[in-house]
Amino acid sequence: MAWLRDIDVWFADHVFAYHAQTLRYATRLVRRADEAEELVQEAYARLFALDGWAAIANPHAFTIRIVRNLAIERFRRAEVVQLAQGALLQALETTDQDPTPDVVAMDRSELQHVARVLQEMPPRMREAMILRRIDGLPPAQVAERMNISVSTVETHLVKALRLLMQRLNRTEARAKTEHASWETKERLERI
Fold it and tell me: What are the φ/ψ torsions at residue 93 (nearest 5 degrees)?
């Protein structure tokens, strides 16, 4: 489809794929289907007018924000606004889709732990694990690259996954024990 521009493909994949959700959201804001459709179409027009459309990290959330801002503009311009619509706008505040800092910190910590466990593995086991699970190579290519059989690759992977799970479970159990002892200590201090 050479007649499609890059922005058309991006729009179809990342924005219009959520059209039904966007329209439902707009309908909840303005309570009329025809006005909701106008809001959504105006939001789409604004997206097409953007120069940096490809850099938008979450196009659906961005579109929802545009719809909400357009609804606010309409309410401000309207001579009579129902109180219920103003309250609805406040209630429908979209939440940030990004993980919170504590979740990011926990994920980074777990990733560092996995990296440490990988470094402690025997070299061939680690190599098989990295090629298969991180680089995403199929077992046949891993075997070819490591100059071993596919069954040996699978054996390395099973052992590596088992070792990884044991170490992660052990760390998780230790953390639960520490947390439980901390809670017990805290309860005793309250008594």
Answer: -55, 125
d(CA 68, CA 63): 9
Residue 45's alpha-carbon distances to 70, 94, 105, 158, in angstroms, are 12, 21, 38, 52
185: its two tokens: 């200590």
pLDDT tens figures, 153-185: 999 999 998 988 888 777 666 666 665 666 666
Instruction: Tell me the pTM.
Output: 0.44
| pLDDT confidence of residue 90 | 56
Cα–Cα separations (whole angstroms), residue 87 to 62, 177, 178: 22, 46, 45
Q: How many whole angstroms separate alpha carbon 138 and alpha carbon 144?
A: 10
Amino acid at 82: Q
